[in-house]
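Need a sequence for this fold. Nothing fancy.
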């Protein structure tokens, strides 16, 4: 049976809202899931998300336009976006940025040659009281320090190595 795309989209959104929770803070992760799976965020998707999270669709449209990266797709397998807005800036954003560049050997706006990571800036992620904040794809990290940067990247590297190992095992 062919399920109409809108029905499938609605079911997916309900699943993601259940997964991330029915709070406003789930908006970004849900939008990213929609973007990842459907390559775009349609007006219909915004309406369904608005209903489920009880947020006005106009507000959602504003967030989608603001975070234009949601439409661009990921550059690296994991795209790291560090908040550049004022609260995070005052809480040590620059040290975190330098550590990210050192760990990955790239500058902001670039991807690692193996395609695993890319680095970019983000505008306020809504975690201003817990800065510096960053996103790795849909995962949010708060109160990030240079030491934590090392651990975060090591964890994602490990995650990728395990996935690769499983793929090799399965073939
Ligand atoms: S200023 Fe960084 S999360 Fe708001």
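Here you go.
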């Amino acid at each position: 049976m062919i399920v109409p795309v809108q029905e499938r989209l609605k079911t997916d959104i309900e699943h993601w809202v259940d997964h991330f929770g029915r709070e406003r803070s789930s908006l970004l992760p849900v939008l990213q899931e929609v973007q990842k799976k459907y390559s775009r965020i349609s007006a219909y998707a915004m309406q369904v998300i608005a209903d489920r999270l009880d947020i006005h669709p106009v507000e959602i449209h504003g967030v989608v336009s603001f975070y234009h990266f949601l439409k661009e797709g990921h550059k690296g397998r994991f795209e790291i976006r560090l908040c550049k807005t004022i609260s995070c800036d005052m809480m040590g954003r620059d040290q975190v940025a330098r550590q990210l560049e050192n760990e990955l050997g790239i500058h902001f706006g670039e991807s690692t040659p193996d395609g695993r990571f890319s680095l970019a800036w983000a505008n306020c992620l809504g975690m201003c009281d817990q800065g510096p904040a960053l996103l790795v794809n849909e995962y949010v990290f708060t109160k990030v320090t240079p030491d934590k940067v090392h651990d975060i990247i090591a964890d994602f590297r490990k995650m990728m190595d395990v996935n690769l190992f499983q793929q090799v095992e399965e073939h």
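For context: The mean pLDDT is 84.
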